[in-house]
Design a protein that fits this description.
By secondary structure, the protein is an alpha+beta fold. 24% of the residues lie in helices and 40% in strands. The longest helix is centred in the last third of the chain and has 19 residues.
């Protein structure tokens, strides 16, 4: 499996793109669907720190912030040498669909199949959890 093989997840959410986007950049809203703590400086060049579960910490830098359509950031883990901070790229796109929003997550640069499977399960879980908030 190539590092270039993207992982992709889609979720239909019963809220507007602007509402969904706010849950991607506001730390108080973010932790309602992912993690137990979040420090988010959602601007190009800004950094984030997501405490996933009290043990695993995701770190990265925002590359693109285009409310309420798109968010692009580097991604990696403080405690995982195979996926260090900044080593992968996450692109989140929000598209209006009917009365809701189609959220698409595209994650590239994952080093191997176990990492892809772990992140696939994580993105499936968290995007489903986000959808249940509306």
């Amino acid at each position: 499996m190539s590092r270039d093989q993207p992982l992709e997840v889609e979720q239909l959410i019963a809220a507007s793109p602007a509402t969904v986007f706010s849950y991607l950049i506001d730390p108080a809203k973010f932790v309602q669907w992912m993690g137990v703590g979040a420090q988010l400086d959602a601007r190009p060049g800004g950094h984030f720190r997501i405490d996933a579960d009290g043990v695993h910490i995701a770190l990265g830098e925002y590359q693109e912030v285009d409310p309420p359509h798109r968010l692009v950031m580097t991604w990696g883990w403080l405690d995982d040498e195979s996926i260090p901070p900044g080593s992968t790229l996450v692109e989140i796109t929000l598209t209006p669909e009917g009365a809701g929003t189609r959220l698409r997550v595209r994650h590239t640069g994952l080093p191997n199949e176990p990492a892809r499977q772990m992140h696939q399960a994580g993105w499936d879980l968290y995007t489903s959890k986000l959808a249940t908030l509306f």
